[in-house]
Amino acid sequence: MVSITIRNLSKRFGDVVALNQLNLEIRKGELFFLLGASGCGKTTLLRTVAGFYAPDEGNLYFDSDDVTRRPPHRRNTAMVFQSYALWPHMNVFQNVSFGLQQKRLPAGVIEGRVNKALRIVQMDPYATRKINQLSGGQQQRVALARALVVEPACLLLDEPLSNLDAQLRLEMRSEIRRICKEAGLTTLYVTHDQKEALSIADRMAVLENGGLAQIGTPQEVYRDPVSRSVAHFIGESNFLSGRIIEPAKRLGYWSVETNAGSFEGRITDTNWKPKYNDRVSLSIRPESFTMVAQKPFSNFIQGKIIRSAYLGELVQYWLDVDGLSAPVQISCLNPRQVEPAGDKTYFAETRSEDVVLLNN
Question: What is the DSSP letter of 294?
Fold first, then answer.
């Protein structure tokens, strides 16, 4: 395994800046995710690490080794593509052994390494099966085994679960983490699926316009977004516009006046020093609200249900709140009944630590 260090990396395609002076450190053995909207630069970064793209500026290091201009076949990386790119005329063993055969390794070495890789992905009983005899999840495991068998310094994954159905994606999330950790690989993983990243990443980076919007553990990025764009991209959030009226009693917390009432919340961006009367946005996750029977003293909204969605484990409500142009979304876990839309007024409160103040 290696650490990956990216320094002042830039990549352009004509007039389009795909990566803009990007700096990033990925630790040895880390399962690191790249997320962001389409066109943010995440796939460009992955392909630059692989060596398929040469940067216009900056440097790329594996440990202390500068690999910026090194061709892909000399970087000791392995990539799993979205389409898997398996040979349909070969069986499982032949697909996995293909890279080793190109290196002209002894037959005994090839057999031992292929069998080991197939055991790690739990596909050894299927070694003689043809690719068209496998399910989507099994094909994905074969693609992983083919990457593992070359014993790469780092593993690069380009949306490997996007072709699987929803249930299979859930099953394969934990399997990918198990495989990467068992093999001791530094792994760089691109996905557009936030739940995928939140569930198995060690750390993640949210990219925006070729730069880094935020880096952190899944919990840090979800709970402590430093910008409206990050809060909007990772999960769902309600945004309320307001004005700072005074510091709260708790250090790092401020009181904010909005059209829906007063809220106390916390600052997550340590580089931002708010002042009295500053205009801010409040980010409040739907699951942070709790429906209550009595009107609370602070940090609450009141409104009428205009629609709902029952999802089994939770029900989502949209409340029409006086003074707000958009409805507020609320998620209630383990619903025993679904409240109807109508003229009844409902109250929903949230804790101060679940209200994040953003510098618009």
Answer: S
